[in-house]
Amino acid sequence: PPGPNNELFLLKLGSLQSEWSRIKFKQEEGTNPPPRWKHTATLYDPTSILLFGGFATSSTRLIDVWVFNTISCEWYQPVQQGPSSIDGMHPQTNDWPGLPCPRGGHAASLIDKNVYVFGGYGGFGYGRRELDDLNVLDTETWKWSRLTPKGKGPERRSGHSMVTVENSLYIFGGWNSTTQFQDLFVLDTQLD
User: How far apart are the two ends of the chain, measured CA to CA in Å?
Assistant: First the structure.
């Protein structure tokens, strides 16, 4: 049925015909991320995919981080988090220092062992707001930090693309409540 789900699919490439298959994993309560959409999934080492945020409903914003091990086909949380459940439309907070606010429609990209997360929409409370914050998760220490780059950055947005080229992040397009963007921003993560 249409709506959020927690299915995972694999596309096998390298032959004349591509082949899709559904990944089977344990269906025990609490061992898998809850169903969602508008999240990010970032390959952060050759065998692990990091899942962050998204929406469970049109008003339920998620704040959790999950890792999928592609060898064992198991999910785990690198830092034990409080519940990502919702009290009304207010996500419950947890004790992970520096964890960004709940969001969906954001973008995430990897440079070295750091997953950078930019923008999206969400936040705490009932109102929806676009975001323009840049957060980084160090996948060796599992510590979050918020960055404040120099120069004029992108306006608040969601639905944008972000890719990595060497040590730079390229952010293109997206939208907010008033504008659809066609702009391109570059952030060199090695500059002070």
Answer: 48
State the Rg of the chain over Cα: 17
Query: Is residue 92 very low, low, confident or very high in pLDDT (cuts 50, 70, 90)?
Result: low
pTM for the whole thing? 0.90
- Greatest extent of the chain over all pairs of C-alpha atoms, in Å: 49
For residue 86, give the amino acid letter: I
Enumerate the β-bridge partners of residue 49.
43, 68
Bridge partners (DSSP) of residue 12 are: 19
Integer Cα distance of 189 and 192 in angstroms: 8
The two three-digit tokens of residue 82, written as one number: 């409080």
Report helix, strand or coil for 138. Answer: strand
Q: Starting from the edge strand earliest in sequence, which strands make up the sheet with 129-130, in order? A: 103-104, 121-122, 129-130
